[in-house]
Design brief:
The complex is a heterodimer. By secondary structure, chain A is mainly alpha-helical. Chain A is built from 20 helices and six strands. Chain B is 22% helix and 18% strand. In chain B, a hairpin with a 5-residue loop joins β19 (449-457) and β20 (463-468).
């Protein structure tokens, strides 16, 4: 008995020591992955461009607030996380940070005082940003961004998530090696891979989360990479695999939607609209093409027969065109509410009215994004090439839960779509979440 | 109690088609620009959103998108001996209100005038002698030619995204188009809209009669389209709610669909709504404008807005009103024929024949505002004025634009207008009628003009503008000629019955029934400061930093819907300002 107690006591002491070590032993910060000369200077505009590539603005700027002054509420599964002030203000921002401090935040998710950052900050991806982009960004934030004195709302998650030291353990599991090595010699594909895996942090939303809420795939070698996730009630659709949202698209289609928010097939929705607004519309044509080529390369080529658009009249189109009074509620609601723009063939019109046939939002496993769209509508961001903030009105005031469920179920099964029905209870949930 | 705001490079009065065009073209130059719109903000969503906008009572009957006479009206009389009275209810014409102006609620017919309409006076004298011009007719040349303006029509049509079929590309006659049109440099940016039953029937018969039918040029998109500013249109779904409504479908060309979101991206451009310009302020010597004074509805105060360049881009009536109130150009005096501001107000001479068919279903509810078929065989350049005894011309056209229940149902004369007989008539004839219309020129006359009313004032204490206008025998002879041509066609079309409505001898102008919102003149362009209010670049003769856009520039009305010419002139003036005026501000002529 005494021996047993001794063992237990020893384990408790060991545990405390380990815990104290986890909390108090300073984190080893990842060093620069490439040695740059001490006097290396970014070219004019490089820093701002790297910021655009990394989309710092969307999360670190409050709606209507000063750029980068933080305080944007980010809804995470763990609770609301408030973004920090990353202007170079000495007291409330990152004014006193060294390059190494800045790198540690991006690569290791730690602040200069050793506090662990929640992984809403996508250091899982940013640890693959190259040293040149990183230093250019540091230079940009320190010398070009005006300092803004603004305290941000303190993030206070519930226990156990408020124990930030636990993130250190999480990082041992979640983080892969820093740095970036392309899988290919093709410079365009390599650039695309770098942009997608590193600064673009696409996997933060488009990869599923694993058991510990880490990205299940951060690189092209991972099976789950870009296989679809969820963000703020919207589906971040898979960009690979059988349900790939970009299946059948051309590189030009991908470049177009990233650059302008819209293309011949679809329009960006949900959080991705902010990505186009603040980030991808500023990509150079070359970079858009590189991203597009890399993403298309992750998809199996369609067989040639399927690549030509199927112009046969679908049963759905015949049904809608017949306009018989006895058709089901969902089809009738479609004619009365949606058909004006999306048409009986469900193909809409290029760059203006998205296709609903094969639309990844419509057929997503979770219908929440589709329901959010039907109830609340959506407005495209203004971009340089396509400035029009085209807006679909919401139908929450016009359709009740049963009707929205019938309409959504119709859409999910029309024109060859094959997704599960939606029930009114789910609609009610989404409606409540919107209010 | 006026506040003075910081000076701008440019102030634009009105944010409809012309204000938006000038706004974006000058914004590109980096100028600091403020546009002042007296009406409210208007966007497709929520203001035109489906299904709210499909409300005939609210918008079609009660004019939800139009100016309210209590805020803005005119007085009207038919000749100089009458005392003008205020128009207290809209009727004959419907000026728009708010961002987009009348550009949101038009049907979308987008024409180019015939080449001889720009030099009508010279054309008549050269071909028919000076005696062909009746006493009191004051037609003038515009001072520009079809060739000069062609690139600007092309620009406007490609910006607005017009669906149509060219008839004359660089002199080559194209089958299926209008063979009588002035040469254009290339085809329309969009193919014509699909053809409805009534249009097909009209086209077939007109063709058999040796005429040259062609699709109406339409600002209702036939395909998805992106214009030079990156702005986008989606294909029209033939919802049948076009004129008097904003388009729910991003299909009708308007400042909203074609310009405004692109313009909003310029940090050097801003605009204020609910801001009514009261006058243009002139320098002490009167030779330049110093800016404008406007009424800020929100702040409930007058605001002095200094600016180097003043663009009048309000509706024609309001541009002329502001000129009269501000002392821009000498007011026109009908007795002496001297003075220029307010001169040559003119309108549009229209008529039509309705055909009833018991056995034909026209499905008028599936319609676009300007889908249809026209002939120009009796256009102003096809008529022997000497032989026919009038100066003018008209296009003749068929095309149902709506099947709305309150205003959109034609019934044979004699059908009761209420009760069981009316219901029976509706049951029998809804969807069984089509019409053939004449849309004709209206010329200018010595005693048709605009000036300040001596008796009535508006809510700001400013004199109302007074319209003196009546129909004249020349134009009635024109429309009666068209009636004869249309009835010949109607006869051939084999309707069960038909009935005509054209102005006949002795007809007087009546402001109550809707006729058309094609008010023109009063700020006419020309080559002589003694006979025109603005020069050929729409620059005020007396104040070189004031430009006056819009249909006020027409010295007499063309036989077409005016928007095409209004748009082309806006681009023409914008280019002159950018290339010629800004580097060296001065009178351009």
């Amino acid at each position: 008995m005494r021996t047993f107690l001794k063992i237990v006591g020893g384990l408790v002491v060991l545990g405390i020591v380990v815990l104290l070590a986890i909390i108090f032993v300073p984190v080893q910060r990842t060093p620069a992955q490439t040695a740059l000369a001490a006097d290396w200077q970014p070219q004019e505009g490089h820093g701002e461009y790297a910021m655009r590539l990394s989309d710092c603005m969307a999360c670190h700027t409050e709606e209507g607030g000063e750029p980068f002054a933080g305080n944007r509420a980010i809804e995470s599964p763990l609770g609301t996380i408030y973004s920090t002030n990353i202007t170079p203000d000495d007291e409330t921002g990152i004014g006193g940070w060294s390059l190494a401090d800045f790198r540690a935040a991006l690569y290791d998710g730690v602040r200069p005082d050793g506090t662990h950052l929640y992984p809403a900050m996508p250091y899982e991806n940013f640890r693959h940003i190259g040293e040149e982009d990183l230093r250019a960004m540091y230079d940009y934030f320190m010398t070009e961004v005006p300092p803004v004195r603004q305290e941000v709302e303190e993030t206070s998650l519930t226990f156990p998530f408020n124990q930030r030291w636990g993130l250190r353990l999480w990082k041992w599991v979640a983080l892969d090696d820093a740095g970036f090595t392309p899988d290919t010699d093709d410079p365009v594909l390599a650039r695309g891979q770098y942009l997608v895996e590193g600064p673009g942090h696409c996997a933060a939303c488009h990869s599923p989360r694993n058991m510990v809420m880490a990205q299940a795939g951060t690189g092209a070698g991972d099976d789950a990479f870009l296989m679809g996730g969820e963000v703020a009630g919207w589906t971040a659709p898979p960009l690979r695999g059988p349900q790939s949202a970009i299946r059948g698209w051309t590189e030009a289609d991908v470049a177009m939607i990233l650059g302008t928010g819209r293309n011949a097939h679809a329009a960006l929705n949900g959080e991705m609209q902010l990505v186009a607004r603040d980030s991808t519309q500023y990509f150079t044509e070359d970079d858009l093409q590189a991203v597009a080529r890399f993403l298309i390369g992750l998809n199996e080529p369609l067989d040639p027969a399927a690549e030509t658009r199927d112009d046969r009249v679908t049963e759905t189109e015949q049904l809608l065109a017949s306009a018989t009074p006895d058709m089901d509620l969902g089809a009738r609601l479609y004619l009365d509410n949606c058909n004006a723009c999306h048409f009986v063939d469900g193909r809409g019109a290029d760059e203006v009215f998205p296709e609903l046939a094969g639309n990844s939002l419509v057929t997503a496993e979770s219908p929440r994004g589709l329901l959010t769209m039907i109830l609340g509508g959506s407005q495209l961001p203004s971009t340089a090439l396509r400035p029009y903030r085209l807006r679909m009105p919401g139908f929450a005031h016009r359709l009740d839960d049963d009707e929205v469920a019938a309409l959504a179920s119709f859409l999910r099964s029309a024109w060859g779509n094959a997704a599960a029905e939606v029930d009114a209870g789910t609609v009610a949930d989404v409606r409540d979440a919107q209010l | 109690m006026a506040r003075t705001d910081p000076k701008k490079d440019v102030v634009i009065v009105g944010l409809g088609w012309t204000g938006s065009i000038m706004g974006i073209e000058l914004a590109k130059e980096g100028l600091e620009i403020l546009a002042l719109e007296r009406g409210p903000e208007r966007s497709t969503v929520p203001d035109f959103q489906y299904p709210n906008v499909i409300d005939e009572l609210k918008y079609g009957i009660r004019f939800g998108f139009m100016q309210k006479p209590r805020n803005s009206t005119i007085t009207v009389r038919r000749n100089v001996d009458e005392t003008a009275l205020p128009m207290r209810k809209l009727g004959s014409f419907l000026p728009g209100d708010g961002v987009g102006g009348a550009g949101i609620h038009w049907n979308g017919q987008t024409w180019r005038p015939m080449a001889n309409e720009y030099n009508l006076r010279s054309y008549v004298i050269e071909n028919f002698g000076e005696d062909a011009i009746p006493d009191g007719m004051t037609i003038q040349d515009w001072g520009v030619t079809a060739e000069e303006l062609e690139p600007y029509y092309d620009r406007f049509e490609y910006m607005a995204g017009i669906a149509g079929q060219a008839g004359n590309i660089q002199g080559e006659i194209i089958p299926g188009g209008n063979p009588f049109e002035a040469p254009r440099s290339r085809d329309y940016p969009m193919p014509p809209l699909p053809e409805q039953t009534d249009s097909r029937m009209f086209r077939e018969v007109a063709g058999q009669m040796g005429y040259h039918p062609f699709p109406r040029p339409s600002a209702n998109a036939s395909i998805a389209y992106t214009n030079e500013y990156g702005m986008q249109l989606g294909p029209c779904n033939f919802c049948g709610f076009c004129e008097r409504y904003g388009c729910l479908n991003y299909s009708k060309s308007s400042p909203q669909t074609c310009i405004l979101d692109a313009l909003r991206r310029y940090d050097n451009f801003s605009y204020r709504v609910n801001s009514e310009v009261l006058r243009v302020d002139l320098a002490v010597d009167g030779r330049t404008a110093t800016g404008v004074t406007y009424w800020d509805e929100e702040a409930q105060e007058e605001v002095i807005q200094p600016a180097d360049l003043v663009i009048l881009a309000a509706y024609q009536l309001h541009n002329v009103h502001l000129m009269l109130l501000s002392g821009i150009g000498e007011p026109y005096n009908p007795a002496s024929g001297e003075g220029v501001t307010g001169k040559n107000y003119s309108y549009q001479m229209n008529g039509g024949t309705t055909l009833f068919y018991r056995d034909v279903e026209f499905n008028p509810f599936a319609a676009a505002g300007s889908s249809g078929v026209s002939i120009d065989d009796f256009a102003i350049n096809q008529i022997d004025f000497g032989a026919e005894g009038f100066i003018g011309g008209s296009y003749i056209t068929a095309g149902l634009s709506n099947g709305q229940p309150i205003r959109g149902i034609s019934l044979p004369r004699g059908t009761p207008s209420w009760g069981a007989g009316w219901k029976q008539g509706i049951g029998e004839y809804y969807g069984h009628a089509m019409s053939i219309g004449s849309h004709g020129s209206n010329l200018s006359y010595q005693d048709c003009y605009l000036d300040l009313d001596p008796n009535y004032t508006d809510r700001h204490g400013r004199p109302l503008m007074r319209m003196t206008f009546d129909w004249k025998p020349n134009d009635i002879r024109m429309t009666q000629f068209m009636r004869a041509r249309i009835e010949e066609i109607a006869q051939e079309m084999g309707a069960d019955s038909w009935q005509s409505s054209f102005k006949s001898e002795g007809a007087r102008y009546d402001i109550r029934p809707y006729q058309t919102t094609h008010n023109v003149g009063g700020a006419i362009m020309g080559t002589d400061p003694n006979t025109s209010a603005v020069n050929r670049y729409l620059q005020a003769w007396g104040q070189h930093n004031v430009f006056v856009l819009g249909a006020g520039a027409f010295p007499q009305n063309i036989q077409y819907n005016p928007t095409g010419a209004v748009g082309a002139l806006a681009y023409w003036a914008a280019e002159a300002i950018v290339n010629d005026y800004l580097p060296n501000p001065r009178p351009l002529v």
